[in-house]
Amino acid sequence: MPTRETRTQASMTMPLSRTRSSTSMRLVRPDARSTAIGARSPSQQGGGMTQAFKILIIDDDPSILEVVTDLLKAAGYQALAGLGGAEGLTLARTERPDLILVDYSMPEMNGLAVAERLKADAATRRIPVVEV
Fold first, then answer.
1. Which CATH class, in words, describes the domain spanning 46-132?
2. What is the mean pLDDT of residues 58-84?
3. Staple partner for 131: which of 7, 28, 111, 117, CB 3.0–4.6 Å?
4. Where are the domains of the chain?
5. Stated pTM of the model
6. C-alpha closest to that of 16 among 64, 54, 55
7. Which residues, 6+ apart, have CB-to-CB distance to 29 below 8 Å?
8. pLDDT at 52
C-alpha cells in the first residue's frame, strides 16, 4: 500500500469551491497514469521520451481558461485553451488532445453541441469529453 507521501506525489487534490464542502477533484499526474485509463501511453508516443497528456479546455470565459490551464500545467499536463465552441473544435481537430473539458453553458455553442460535433467527426470521436 502506498504511503501518504507517495500518494501526495502521484496526485493533486484541488477544491472545486471555496465553501466548506468536502467536494474535491483528484488529478493524477501524467507519470503515475495507467495506460488503461488513456487511449495511448505518453511514453509510447515518440522515441521513448515521456510526454505529458494533452488536455483541451473549451470555455467562453478567458479568466476560467487561464486558471484551469495554469492548474493543469502546474500538475504536469500540457494544457490547451479554446475560447468558445468553434475555436475548441478547431483545436481538437488540429491538436488531437487526450482529453477535452468543455463548459456546458456557453452562449454561441453550448457544451452539448460541441460534444455532439466532436463525436460526429471521425478525427475526434475517440477523444474523451467531459462537460463541466
1. alpha beta
2. 96
3. 111
4. 1-33, 46-132
5. 0.65
6. 64
7. 9, 10, 11, 12, 75, 76
8. 83
